[in-house]
Amino acid sequence: GLADDLAGFDMPAFLARQHPAERIAARHTVGLADAIDDDDALPDAPADGLPTTLVAAVRRYGLTHFKLKLGGDTARDIDRLERIARAIDGHAQLVTLDGNEQYADADAFAAFLDRLLSTPALWALAKRTVFVEQPIRRDAALERDVRSLGRRIPLLIDESDATLDAFVRARELGYT
Predict the structure, then answer these.
(1) Which residue range is the domain that position 107 belongs to?
(2) Residue whose C-alpha is closest to residue 87's, from 114, 119, 122, 117
(3) Predicted pLDDT of residue 2
């Protein structure tokens, strides 16, 4: 009764067809403050033998799936993604970008996307990027159509999914 879009959907039949996966891939999150390589490794990092940089973690664990946080400043995000791309090149099978509502609106995110897709050093990373999660602030995310952006790279909502109609509204606006 709460989700009109699921009227008539046979949930028990759907669930009966589901089977647990035998394997999963761990997606490694690269936070905004995380050290990428030795150039920004913390001098007081724990000396416990565990990796303290992305480069070291990729080398030690054979990481192949990555969630990369964005900060909302196009120039800084592009520079940082170039460094990350060098660190994961040859390893990355799947990449997601997490905007964490950092871009003010669709135009600001479009400027970032233009730079991402036109920077040769990021082409391989962009090709492996399967979606961008909530790049636009929640107060602006569902204000206008984003189909033109969503055709370039799939967009998801996260923080904006706060009401029963948010998902349906997001789909209507071009989020996938």
Answers:
(1) 24-173
(2) 122
(3) 65
Residue type, 13: A
Per the CB < 8 A criterion, the answer to whether 160 and 138 are in contact is: yes
What's the pTM value of the predicted model, to 2 decimals? 0.89
Residue 134 corresponds to which amino acid? Q
Task: Provide the number of structural domains found in the chain.
Answer: 1
Tokens of 86: 């060098």
Question: Does residue 145 contact residue 173 with C-beta atoms inside 8 Å?
Answer: yes
> Which CATH number covers residue 129?
3.20.20.120
The answer to whether residue 18 sits within a structural domain is no
Phi, psi torsion values for 83, nearest 5 degrees: -65, -45
Task: Encode pLDDT of 10-23 as tens digits.
Answer: 999 999 999 999 99
Q: Which two tokens stand for residue 8?
A: 């008539």
Residue 149: Cβ within 10 Å count? 20
Place of tokens 């690269």: 30
